[in-house]
Design brief:
Length: 156
């Protein structure tokens, strides 16, 4: 038996919790990016500011904060798309299950209908002959018996 995915509704507690966590992490990241003081350290051996290994220049610090904020927004969008994809899959699974239930009911009803269409003429004819014999008193029809040595005229 194939495992089915439990449907997750759009207003489900799991989805609300996921969205709330995404929103909170984005807000923390934006708040921490805005609150970080710009560092004035330079890199060690080259004397050039900001090669990204030991420290960064004041000009690169806002860019890093912006990049982190953008990464957080992208992560939130990916999580939202994944939640939407899971919602679509659960809705498709639910529709598929409903369709299977409908098909099962339809096949059962169709089988009963065909059986009744086949049985009805047989019932009508046999009930007519039984009524004719029992209520009206007519004799049962029988096959005529032929003598064993009788030869048909057609075959002779």
């Amino acid at each position: 038996m194939a495992a089915t995915i439990a449907p997750v509704r759009m207003g489900s507690p799991i989805l609300r919790r996921c969205r709330r966590q995404i929103l909170q992490s984005s807000q923390r990241l934006y708040a921490s990016a805005a609150a970080k003081p710009a560092s004035t350290s330079t890199s060690t051996s080259t004397g050039r500011p900001g090669n990204g290994k030991q420290g960064s220049s004041p000009a690169r610090e806002p860019a890093m904060r912006t990049a982190e904020a953008r990464e957080s927004a992208l992560r939130a969008a990916r999580m939202r798309r994944q939640a939407e994809r899971e919602d679509r899959q659960s809705e498709e699974a639910k529709k598929r299950l409903e369709s299977e239930k409908y098909q099962k009911r339809y096949k059962t009803a169709a089988r009963k209908w065909v059986s009744s269409l086949i049985a009805l003429p047989i019932l009508l004819v046999t009930s007519y002959y039984l009524f004719d014999r029992l209520a009206l008193g007519h004799a049962q029809k029988s096959m005529p018996k032929t003598p064993p040595n009788h030869v048909d005229e057609k075959n002779a």
